[in-house]
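Running low. Got one?
___
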Amino acid sequence: MRTTNRPVTALALTLAAAPLALAACSSGGSNPSSAGSGHSGGVAVAKAPVALCNELNGVLSDGPDPGDDPVGYALSQILPLQQQVHSSDTAVMTTVTQLIAADQALYNSSGADKSAAATIKKDYTAINKACPEVAP
């Protein structure tokens, strides 16, 4: 159990920094539509490049429904996310890396790792801010 908890703990700490990374990238983005998009607090989330959103959509649209089979869905995402999704958008790729780690933790625990499940939910929310309606 110790080896499973260490990555999840590290993942949780890394996850805490993800919203800051997403917000920081929005200030210098080349997409003018992302600025001032109505988010409270005046911080807009940067939109990811279309090519990256298309890659994420291609991977995340495959596999079982995450609500029906969270462990099977996690398993179906781990390798495709690692092998097929590449981008220089560090904010989104950090979130994808966290999602991969959380998916692996959920799969390794046969669905018992509640922290991994919560992390996956948060990562999907962050991905959907960068690429609307891509993540389940």
Observations:
- Residues 101 and 121 are 13 Å apart (CA to CA).
- The chain has a mean pLDDT of 72.
